[in-house]
Amino acid sequence: MTSSTWQERARDLQIDGRAFINGERVAARSERQFDNHSPIDGRLLGAVARCDGADVDIAVSAARAAFDDGRWASFAPAKRKRILLKFADLMQQNAAELALLETLDMGKPIKYSQAVDVAGAANCIRWYGEAIDKVYGEIAPTPANSLALITREPVGVVGAIVPWNYPMLMASWKIAPALAAGNSVILKPSEKSPLTALRMAELALQAGIPPGVFNVLPGFGNEAGSALALHMDVDCIAFTGSTRVGKQIMQMAGQSNLKRAWTELGGKSANILCADCPDLDAAVAASIGSIFFNQGESCNAPSRLFVEESIRARFIEKALALVPAYAPGDPLDDKTVMGAIVDDIQLKTVIGYIEQGKAAGAKLVTGGERVRLDTGGYYVAPTIFDNVTADMAIAREEIFGPVLSVLSFTDVKEAVRQANASPYGLHAAVWTADLTKAIQTSRALRAGTVHVNQYDNDDITVPFGGYKQSGNGRDKSLHAFDKYTELKTTWIQI
Ligand code: NAD
């Protein structure tokens, strides 16, 4: 579709910002709303329900009633599977609308909203639907006069709080395993990108997920979000977002009913590029592509590049040759690969870090400025800093924008030491043709995922999550069921 076709569709789009509780669209109890603007050009997309504690109480009651009467949890796993597969099908049938909502709301290029966000979210829902009638319990090797069954049961009412960078995908990583396991879910999307979550709830109902089982409450973190995390009748809170708020979530769980609290948090992923890497062009392309993908607004973006000193100049030269391809463009144009930063607040954060980098003495080799000002939207040129040192804020802190910090090393062990000297531990990478070095380095890196000679691989079958202050627990793969199920042991005397 051309940009003008997407624009036409955008004009015709009916946007409903009301909450979704107990199978119905409803206004916030207070009737308060907030304005939702598009980062593409600042246009007003519409008003969204500003839910707070009163709405959380209503949604939790609905979710609890749905869980307790077994209208979803008591379905045979094969029946839940069929409904989740239908939900995934409906997402694909409505892919253009969902992609358009995601791009308008969040600013990412439409081609990625389709190929990554809608496709990835539908695949995730399908995968957990497929999995749920293939997960078995266990029988423990106990003495002959007894039988001990180890079974998984749903935890009950799950509160899911997600960020704005991959709104549908992050939501599906939580709701798909939680629903597959038989829980009731209350999803709080980010106030910066609430639209696709609300539409997903309608599609889930249409697929056959009973009212009350999947609810969506848009609103602000310190209103709807904290009310959910503090609620005494929520059994589990599954959070993806910043490390700062993740710490508050753990505290709120402790302050209230000690609900299970799972956190998927920030990152400052280290990418170690050795002189003996098998293919420097491929390494440069993946390193640049991964930091600039999604406008750099990815938790696992390889934002700290450690390059061996002997190839540093060649790396910079090759990287600069690729940068023009990432020039920000109209997110509704199919050819655009870098879109808008999510809002003016995030724009100021990114520009603030760029200014800090310059002031600290890092060498700005490209970018470093806001672009496309005439659009009224929020765009930042892909930015690379060379000569970055470990003490600089741009080497230590998560920027969450299209900014690469290049540091150099002469001894790979020193690069690993610096890579690990971070509160974060989400992803890391090493590029080398030396098998021993690759294995030793990947073992030494303290991160939930380590990439060797690539950075792009991703699949629903593998766990995603971090060490240290990048969080606990894992999204994706069968391991995600650990978050949304309790293990029960049943002893039977024979
Ligand atoms: P954020 O922490 O500001 O907000 C995340 C969510 O928490 C939003 O829905 C927000 O409304 C809510 N929230 C904010 N304050 C709250 C409070 N006091 N109580 C309850 N909820 C509250 O993060 P963000 O800016 O939306 O997202 C960016 C962050 O998310 C980055 O740090 C990024 O690395 C991280 N992230 C991590 C992963 C992962 O899998 N590890 C994936 C995507 C994003």
Key features?
494 residues, alpha/beta, 2 domains, 7-stranded mixed β-sheet, 5-stranded parallel β-sheet, 16 helices, globular, binds nicotinamide-adenine-dinucleotide
Bound molecules: nicotinamide-adenine-dinucleotide
Nearest-integer average pLDDT: 98
Number of domains: 2
Contiguous low-pLDDT stretches (5 residues minimum) are none
- Fraction of helical residues: 25-40%
Please list the strands of the largest sheet in the order they lie side by side. 14-17-18-13-12-20-21
- Approximate strand percentage: 15-25%
Tally of individual helices = 16
Quaternary form: single chain
Beginning-to-end CA distance, first to last residue: 67 Å
Radius of gyration: 23 Å
The counted number of beta strands is 23
Major sheet: 7 strands, mixed
Structural class: alpha/beta
InterPro entries: Ald_DH/histidinol_DH, Ald_DH_C, Ald_DH_CS_CYS, Ald_DH_N, Aldehyde_DH_dom
Family: Belongs to the aldehyde dehydrogenase family.
GO molecular function: aldehyde dehydrogenase [NAD(P)+] activity
Domain Aldehyde dehydrogenase: 29-489
